[in-house]
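Notebook entry, structure prediction.
Reason for the run: the old model in the group folder had no record of what sequence produced it. Starting over properly, with the input documented here first.
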Amino acid sequence: MREVNKILVAICFSEYCDDTFRFAVGLAEQLQADLLVANVVNIRDVQAVSTIESMGYSVSSEDYIKGVIEERQAELEKMVAASGFPRDKVRSIFRVGHPVGELLKTIKNEGVDLVVMGTKGRSNHPHIFVGSVAEKMFRKSPVTVVSHRRS
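New structure, fully documented this time:
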């Protein structure tokens, strides 16, 4: 069996992410692995802000990105503190782009051994078992993806 030294937990800061993060922390503790938290600001959201900006409204896609990342970093700090996981074993990455593509690049560039994802993300459609990002990651990831179901 391949050794697991680095676990990537992909979170979108939806209502499900806290449980997914805690699950990843538990795995990292058991495997004595480092934890890499990844969040991708979806480029479609940035493009929507740019469209609104082009209509003359006083918004900026750069300010939007900066604000979203700052908000998510603060939320992540709370999650890490509440988990009790050693801060020096957690690193975070915030990217802007297409979530699946950015997560796949992160796996490769960061030497990730295992990915933890929730089964649902930003969308909460009751008829969808697995979110579209998770579903694509299950098919395309070069490493094992562990699915966490909210209890």
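Summary: Residues 68 and 74 are 10 Å apart (CA to CA).
The old model has been moved to the deprecated folder.
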